[in-house]
Amino acid sequence: MGDSAVLLRISDVSKSFGEVVALDDVSLDIRENEFFALLGPSGCGKTTLLRVLAGFEQPDAGTVTLDGSDLLSVPPEKRAVNLMFQSYALFPHMTVAKNVAYGLVCEGLPRAEITARVDEVLDTVGLSDKKAALPKTLSGGQRQRVALARAIVKRPRLLLLDEPLSALDRKIRGEMQMELKRLQHEVGITFVVVTHDQDEAMSLADRVAVMDAGVVRQLDAPLDLYRRPRSVFVADFIGSSTILRGSYLDGHWETPGLPPLSVPAECSGARAIALRPEAISLLSVDDSRCRLRGTVSEVYFQGDHALAQVDVDGTTFLAAVRDDVLPERGARVGITWQESAIIPLVAD
Ligand SMILES: Nc1ncnc2c1ncn2[C@@H]1O[C@H](COP(=O)(O)OP(=O)(O)OP(=O)(O)O)[C@@H](O)[C@H]1O
Ligand SMILES: [Mg+2]
Question: Which residues, at least 6 apart from 196, have a Cβ–Cβ distance to it below 8 Å?
Answer without folding.
Answer: 39, 40, 41, 42, 46, 163
